[in-house]
Amino acid sequence: MGALKIKVEIEKEIIEQLKGYKRLCGRIKVLERQPVGMGYEVNAFDEDKLQTLHARLKGLPSYMYLNKREQHLETIAHAYLEQYPVGTKSQLQEIKSQHGADADDRKDLKELARRIQKVRDARLGTLRGIDAIHEKEAQLRDLMDERDMISNTLEALGDVNNNYSRLLLHRYIEGKSVDEVASILGIVRKTFDRWRVKAIEEYAILAGMS
């Protein structure tokens, strides 16, 4: 009975995998297009962009990545801050404590404070920050690996027996009824039942689940 129980559990897991395939693909599509901050989406956030971002944080000359307005604000910050505090909270407090020598400087200091606050808000957001980007990339890779495992297993099953692969595809991924699948495959219900068992067994072997 023990072996039978394991087989039933494996069958249930395979069916759940196949039934969840479309939802899995939908989740990947949504996640690929979901913004992660700084103008990037997960699918566009390749290794070059990630390295560029890290380089910015590690102290490349500001003229290499700041526009003229941002460079001007950086100059204002250097002019009013004797020491650059560590952390955005301390930087924000220090900027807010400055009054500015004239109206233009006061305006620049306010803008600088707003930008620092925006950075703080972004870091506190659940979908922002470097850690969140890494987390989303890892999540996307996991989902894509799961999707590819299912599609590759079905493809390999098709090489073994194309009817088995089609049966699982139509029945569990596309959600067709038993009668509909039997009609598509040109078989009777008894043959469907026999093929279904064999298809799941072969799928389990190919997926390393048996």
From TrEMBL:
RNA polymerase sigma-70 ECF-like HTH domain ranges (all copies): 67-194
Signal peptide: none
Protein name: Sigma-70 family RNA polymerase sigma factor
Pfam families: Sigma70_ECF (PF07638)
Tree of life domain: Bacteria
